[in-house]
Structures are given as structure tokens and as C-alpha cells.
Amino acid sequence: MIGRTTSPRVAFVLVSYAPDTPAGMERATGALAMGLHAMGCRTIIITASANLAPSPDTIRLQSLRVEFPMDDAALRKAIVRESHTIRSELGRILTREAIDIVVYVDALWGLGCIMPDHHARRVLAVHVLGHREDMDPAIGRADRVIAPSPALIGDAAARGYRADSWRVVPNALLHERIPADVGERERLRREGPFRTLARPALNKGVLDLLKSVPAGLDRPAHMMLAAAPFDTDHETQQSIVDRCVRACVPPTQLSVRRLSWAQAPAWLAKAAVVLVPSHAESFGLVALEAMNAGTPVVAYDVGNLPDLIGTGDDAGGTLVEREAGPRALWRAALALVQDRVTYLHTSRAAYYRSRDFRPTSIAEHFLKAVW
Questions:
Q1: What is the dihedral of CA 24, 93, 72, 265, to 10 degrees?
Q2: For the whole model, what pTM was predicted?
Q3: Which domain of life is it from (predicted)?
Q4: Contact 358, 176 (CB under 8 A)
Q5: What is the CA radius of gyration of the chain?
Q6: pLDDT, tens digit, for every residue of 45-66?
């Protein structure tokens, strides 16, 4: 930020944004906006979500009339139909709010594919690799492209994107926690539940995890499922939920409900171990929130999870080869809680690894990357 003497005004565009949405892009956007606000930046979030409580920090995009949940194809059709009107309204909002940096949170869901002409610095945030028809125009219009992990940038390069100039801006913690004291963490090690928090999607791995619960498991295993705005195939989701219900036998317990953003970290904090059975993770917010509470994580070695959780003496959990399957996740979790010294060391390491992702730290990193 050499030569800059004032804090920039930052806008985020994410049409599905609403507080407490169980989706990584929404949570990451809220956390970065909070971090920037704490640094003295004026921040707004532009959304198409209806029925939001009036707020000076959230602006409703009137020209995009959509209802959630919806899929990519339906959203794309709505954007194309009203693209000229949407661009005009976005431009007016950015001008009225005197925005210096505008972050299009996704090529499609963040309207990066139709960025309007405006003097604000255009940043495309790539949380997932979308369709080429959305990604190509968004990348072409962006002044800077950011992604939450080197793993995602590597995936982009492997798919043929020229990603060498992309910058890594990790996701931030939205709610920081003070870990339990040693006595409480020891109690959780001995008798606390294993917990998993995910969406009802096959690639989240919850069904496979439930089907592989070890015989004689001596503690509860809690699974929490909640759908996001882009989870549109209700029949498929319900099928997954129904199959999870059938696979759920004591001591496993299944809940299908949405936790608020403030509730999720507290729920993860009360686990002995958080299992992340996802087959792919571009960042791993659930793992980060668990680690911030001092809860060790057991996960597959996919996506960003090896970098986030770590390996060796300072690891915040245990990584399992994806090919080893869900039984290996259970074995790793059981091994961890059976070794008091390793468990408490891992708990401390998990918390200290998470400190790098405080909102103001990530906000400062963001400004250095794009401003």
C-alpha cells in the first residue's frame, strides 16, 4: 500500500449472500468484510437475496430477480437476460458508495462474468473453478485474481488457466474462540464426541463415513447436515439425507439443520475430534474453525487440507490418504484420542496454526495483494 494514505472503500458482490448461509463463499466474504472494517475500511456487500434486514452494509441488487435455491444454469440465464440492467445498477451503486475496490466473489455467483466498466479496481475471487463460459470473461476483465489456496491455483493451472499471476488470499475466521483449558480438553479427549459438519452432497463424504462406523465405538459421533443456496436438487439432497438416516445407528447421531455462523465454531469446539471426510477442499473452513477452538482435525490429504492442517510436529490434526477410505479416518481419530500426550500437543498446535487466519491479518494480506 505504498503511496496510499487513506483506507479504501471495498464492495463485495455475491448474489446469494445472506448471514448464516451454510456455504464457504458467504462465510469467507463476511469474515473478510469484518476484517477490513476493523482496519478502518468502509465495506458493503451487494446481494440479490431477498428479505434481508435493512443494513447500511448490505445492499440489495434490484435488477436481478431470483429466488434461492437455484442452480448455475438458472442463475446464468437470469443474468444474461438482464445483463445490461444489472451492469448499470452495479455501476450506480459503486459510484454512489465511492468504491475503490470491488470484489466479484465468483465468476457466476459474484457476477464476475459481467463486470461493469468502473474506475474501481476489479478483483475476481475464485473460491471454486467454475464453468469456462463464466470464468473466461471474468478473468479477462479482472485487474487481479485471488484464490484462497495454492492448491486451487494449481488446479486452475492444470485445467489450462494462466494462473501464474493469481494471488493467494486465504479465508479468514469469522468468529475467533478461546480454546478450552487443558482440563476440559482432556475431558473431551476421554469422552467427547466425534463431530462432522457438512452439506448433504456425496463429495462431502458423510454417507461413506456413516457406513464405516467402527463396531463398538465407545463415544457419540455427531453429524450435522445443512443445504446451501446453490443446492437445488432437492430430490438428490433428500436421497442423501434419507440414506444417511438409514446408515445412522447408535452411537452415531444425525441432525439436518442449519447452524448460525456463531453457533458452528462453538459446536465444533465441543468435539474430541472433528472429522472432515470431504473428497475435495479448496480451503477448508470447517477444519480451520475446529482448529481455532483447539479441536484436532482428521481429514483426507486433499486440496488445501495438507497446507491448512500441516504435517509433522506442528500439525493441527491427522491426514489420511484419500485412497485409504473412511475407515482410515475413524482409525486415525481413535488413535489420536487414545494418546493423551499427542492429543494435547495436537490441540495446542491446531489453535496456534489457526492464529494466522485472524480477520485483520487476512484483511491486511488482501489489501497488499490487490491495492
A1: 10
A2: 0.94
A3: Bacteria
A4: yes
A5: 21
A6: 999 998 787 788 999 999 999 9
